[in-house]
Design brief:
By secondary structure, the protein is an all-alpha fold. It contains four helices and no strands. Its main location: mitochondrion.
C-alpha cells in the first residue's frame, strides 16, 4: 500500500474534486506565499528542462551559441554603428 500523503503536500493535479475546498483552504494566499509557489514551480520546470537532462542534444548547444552571438553583437554594436556612416572612397 502507498504511504499516506498529507493533503497539504498533494499537488493540484492529484487532488480529488471532493477534497478541493479543503486543499484550497490549506494554501498560503499571502503575496509571499504566492510568489514562493510561483518561484518553486518555475524553478522546478526550468531545472528539469535545462539542467537535469538525461542526454544532451543540439538544442542546448544551439541556445548557447545563439546567446553568444547576441552578446557579442551587443558588445560590438557601438563600433558597428560608428563604421556604418563612414564612406569608403
Amino acid at each position: 500500500l502507498p504511504a499516506a500523503v498529507l493533503l497539504k503536500d498533494t499537488k493540484l493535479m492529484d487532488v480529488k474534486l471532493g477534497q478541493l475546498g479543503s486543499w484550497l483552504a490549506m494554501r498560503d494566499f499571502t503575496p509571499g506565499g504566492i510568489l514562493g509557489a510561483i518561484r518553486r514551480g518555475e524553478g522546478d520546470r526550468y531545472y528539469n528542462k535545462y539542467i537535469n537532462v538525461r542526454k544532451g542534444g543540439l538544442g542546448g548547444l544551439s541556445m548557447l551559441l545563439a546567446g553568444y552571438i547576441v552578446l557579442s553583437y551587443m558588445w560590438s554594436y557601438s563600433h558597428i554603428k560608428h563604421d556604418r556612416r563612414r564612406k569608403y572612397h
